Amino acid sequence: KLQDAITVYRTAIRVEPNFPEAYNNLGNALREAGIADEAIRCYTACIQLQFNPLTLHSPAGVLRLCVAYNNLSGILKLQSCTWRTEDVVEHCLARIDMWCLEALGSLFAF
Q1: Nearest by Cα to 45 from 75, 25, 61
Q2: End-to-end CA distance of the chain, in Å?
Q3: How confident is the model at residue 77 (pLDDT cuts 50, 70, 90)?
Q4: pTM of the model
């Protein structure tokens, strides 16, 4: 089933190359399959596709972006790339509108 998921997400990207969620999901499937280098490329593509004003100024967009950054930093951590993980976190925080981070915090403050 994992191989089927990888095939489906690769097809989705071929059909719609600007679909960040497909890259993120493919990255997750590849990580589970132990194909770390390609998973890292997928997470990176997902992040690059999401850097636009609509994403960076909406709480939902920032949440999706944070998920991709989290996935990227997680796989780098698994590979013992601590210095790269720190760079990913710094890169993320430097680009996200602080208003959105506050808005995200209020979404989870029940």
Answers
A1: 25
A2: 37
A3: confident
A4: 0.76
